[in-house]
Amino acid sequence: MTKIEKIVLSYSGGLDTSIILKWLQETYGCEVVTFTADLGQGEELEPARAKAEMSGVKDIRIVDLREEFVSDFVFPMLRANALYEGQYLLGSSIARPLIAKHLVGIAREVGADAVAHGATGKCNDQIRFELAVNALDPSIKVIAPWRQWNIRSRLQLSEYAEKHRIPVPSDKRGEAPFSIDANLLHTSTEGKSLENPAEVAPDHVYQRTVDPVDAPDTPEIITVGFERGDPVSVNGKAMTPAALLTELNGLGGRHGVGRLDLVENRFIGMKSRGIYETPGGTILLAAHRGIESITLDRAAAHLKDEIMPRYAELIYNGFWFAPEREMLQALIDHSQAFVSGEVTLRLYKGSASVISRASPCSLYSADLVTFEESTIAFDHHDAEGFIRLNGLRLRSWAARNGR
Ligand code: ARG
């Protein structure tokens, strides 16, 4: 084993990373610095400090990354209307490069030669962390205890914890918790009974949205303001990126917006089933598409839609800090110069529907599209020639086929 001098660990204070902290200290016999990011997971972070202190950690970093997360990661992704496999809003995928960026930053600051994370050998998150570290500082080594130690299951993990007097958490019902990843964009839940995709997810997996059936019987009308592709206000009130997403999470959660029960294809090769709750993100995707519908040129919009699955897959697979993602981002960002205005949505029993949109930069012309008489010169005869020429090859083709 190569000699490691100092390690920065991505540390949540939960069971896995508490065990990893102990294991790193024992295995490498070196100083471990803990880094805990506040991404709006809605958990107290001070207990993580206390736990790290108890484990003898001297350098404990707890950093509020909420604004950076939303403004530099979530919003750029939202400009692309990114969805993986048509449905997943990438809430976990987009958080990993940010955590990796700060792990690398702290490692450089404290002179650490390695960073460590608690992602397992079967998950996407290990790939995302490590590709980001590779891209940001190839001199930093990555330690992934889940791939090195001989703990092979959650059961063995609990046994190790008991042996080392590390408290094993349970959910509100006293059972072992699901594998949960939460931040300002979403909550993802995997594992336990969810591993059988034929089984309906129990109600208690949902954490930040009500069941649409139990949502209020009266719809709620909200507005979202956009400037150059990014949301900037809710109901006319200007907000910072993190405050805006927090506000929409509250509104969407109350109306049961943004639940998703998905079987997805992991980059590492297997299919997995997860439950996602992305209330604010779901509202923002609908709203952003709403404002783009009047401000983007047709070809620009269609080009964006063509590259979107590719862009989303790059983020899912962990290539945020890769040249091709940056190239696509430049294209997407360029398209957003006139994506400004206001969208009105109706939240009602699980849905977030755009009901009106307006923009000072609108390309929409009622005068042009109207069924009534118009002042704009539009010669209906032009349409005849347009169709005749577009139909030219179809007529040849049909004639050849003997239709
Ligand atoms: N399957 C999702 C993804 O790959 C969520 C992973 C969340 N991680 C977790 N530890 N539950 O993006």
Brief digest:
This protein has helices at 15-28, 46-54, 66-79, 95-110, 124-136, 145-148, 154-163, 241-254, 279-295, 298-317, 323-335, 366-369, 380-400; strands spanning 6-10, 31-38, 60-64, 114-116, 141-143, 179-182, 187-190, 220-227, 230-234, 237-238, 259-265, 271-277, 341-348, 351-358. With 403 residues, the chain is of the alpha/beta class. The structure holds arginine.
Overview of this protein structure:
The mean pLDDT is 96. The radius of gyration is 25 Å and the shape is elongated. A hairpin with a 2-residue loop joins β8 (220-227) and β9 (230-234). The longest helix has 21 residues, at 380-400. The chain has helices spanning 15-28, 46-54, 66-79, 95-110, 124-136, 145-148, 154-163, 241-254, 279-295, 298-317, 323-335, 366-369, 380-400, and strands at 6-10, 31-38, 60-64, 114-116, 141-143, 179-182, 187-190, 220-227, 230-234, 237-238, 259-265, 271-277, 341-348, 351-358. With 403 residues, the chain is α/β, with parallel strands linked by helices. It folds into 3 domains: 6-176, Rossmann fold; 180-358, Argininosuccinate synthetase, chain A, domain 2 (Alpha-Beta Complex); 370-400, no CATH class. The strands form 3 sheets. Strands 3-2-1-4-5 form a 5-stranded parallel beta sheet, with helices on both faces. The protein has 13 helices and 14 strands. Arginine binds at residues 92-93, 124-125, 179, 181, 188, 190, 272, 274.
